[in-house]
Amino acid sequence: MKILVTPTSLKPDATNPAIGKLKNFADEIAFNPAGRPLTEEELIPLLEDCDGYLAGLDFVTARVVESCEKLKVISRYGVGVDRVDIDAASRRGIAVCNTPGVNAEAVADLALGLILSVARRIPVLDRLTKDGKWTRSTGIELSGKTIGILGLGAIGKAVAKRASGFSMRVVAFDPYMDEAYARANGIETADFNGTVNNSDILSLHLPLNDETRHVINGEVMSGMKQGAIIINAARGGLIDEHAACELLKSGHLGGLGLDAYEEEPPAASPLFTMDNVVATPHIGAHTREATANMASLAVSNLIDVISGKECKYVLNRAHIK
Predict the structure, then answer these.
(1) Residue 220 is part of a domain; what is its CATH number?
(2) 211 given a catalytic annotation
(3) Cβ neighbours of residue 45 under 8 Å, at least 6 residues apart?
(4) Do residues 162 and 191 share a domain?
(5) Same domain, yes or no, for 166 and 274?
(6) Is 264 noted as a catalytic residue in this protein?
């Protein structure tokens, strides 16, 4: 039995309990040879004789899936499956799993860090101070501001909890809103436009799909408050980056905090020349705790499916015999 492991934070390290568990289960394990998310052309030969696939942020297209004669499971190391063609996997009888919730605290921490960094211009002031400059900069306080949260899942809830600790007003939209949770935790609910248009800071925690791609477009951003800040620690395709750039230049938007991009790794972008844009390399889930939890659950999901055991994190269960 052969398993392909591609998340860049998972190495052939025998001291990693999850990798140790996988080595005890499989006859052969292959690891990511490129140190980055893999393309369609790179994945096809690697998956040719694999029974299981522990997937990072690779592009698992229909062509990739259709080339896999032996594959039984694609176990995502993380919650997002926007780069996996689930329909193609279902047609081939390949289970697709993910690891919901285990990285929520880590991503929420980063989202809060991005909020503070943009609101107080921490990165640029750090750089200027180290260069010997004594630059005074007037930022904004979080206390009393309205944070809008799009997507009140595990991560959105964790962000709301942190924002409440900063005495912020929390407003949220989710198409599957947990009304009882919102009431119990002092979270106001609104429709999409009501959440976006009333936000001083907007934090995105939606999945990326056909309905949400560029959900934050030029028209939406133009309707936001003057000086509003947008934080994206979810998926890059949620924001029209070109439109955001123009609205930053005009001064309508106050800043962006980005951990995800339409193209990853991102090409040179005018966004990166702006002091009110804070950028990190999609590391929201990269804490020691979160990576350990994701690895453990992703490996367990893979082993359970191949072993014929019940796995509650199979996303296309109805299509798998």
Answers:
(1) 3.40.50.720
(2) no
(3) none
(4) yes
(5) yes
(6) yes
Q: pLDDT digits over 240-275, tens only?
A: 999 999 999 999 999 999 999 999 889 889 999 999
Q: What are phi and psi of 239, to 5 degrees?
A: -110, 135
Query: In the predicted model, is pLDDT for residue 145 greater than 80?
Result: yes
- Annotated catalytic residue within 235, 241, 262, 286: 235
Angle at 186 between CA 226 and CA 110, to 5 degrees: 60
The verdict on 149 and 217 lying in the same domain is: yes
Instruction: Evaluate whether 184 touches 210 at the Cβ level (below 8 Å).
Output: no
Do 63 and 12 fall into the same domain?
yes
Residues 26 and 174 grouped into a single domain: no
Answer yes or no: are the C-beta atoms of 31 and 38 closer than 8 Å: no
Task: Domain of residue 252: give its range.
Answer: 104-279
Number of domains forming the structure of the chain: 2
Residue 9 pLDDT level (bands cut at 50, 70, 90): confident
Q: Which of 63, 264, 317, 319 is catalytic?
A: 264
Give the pLDDT mean for 120-142.
Answer: 96
The pLDDT value recorded for residue 129 is 97
Q: Within this chain, do residues 30 and 74 fall inside the same structural domain, yes or no?
A: yes
pLDDT per residue as tens digits for the range 46-91: 999 999 999 999 999 999 999 999 999 999 999 889 999 999 999 9
CB-based contacts of 238, cutoff 8 Å, min separation 6:
204, 206, 208, 212, 213, 214, 215, 216, 232, 260
